[in-house]
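User: Please predict the structure of the protein below. I'd like the answer in structure-token form so I can feed it into my own downstream comparison script.

Assistant: Understood. Taking the following sequence of 115 residues as input:
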Amino acid sequence: MKGQEMMECIASYAPGIYAWLVLPAMFFSVGIYGMLTRRNAVGVLISAELAINAAAMNFVIFNKFIAPGKFDGQIMSLFVIATAAAEVLVGIAIFVMLFKYRKTTDVTQMNLMKK
């Protein structure tokens, strides 16, 4: 009987806003850590995407708890995702051109614009 009671307790638990905000905070922290520690250009872009998507997730979470009847947070998160896709497109184009000249994806060696 204890297992059934435990399952009912878990199923009836509804996390609040603070519990939901922990997830994007962790995603954002991992994204910032990845941007600061990665040397590969693709890793830096993936880390930036993770941080940007954590911000988009915050829009949805705050919309659910502050104004549950409206879709403002979801619409704003779609704009953030579209902007992030454009940012990745430009970033990859820049890294492809730099790779063409430098033959490396190490971002610490990409000082081409200093000349």
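That's the full token string. The chain has a mean pLDDT of 85.
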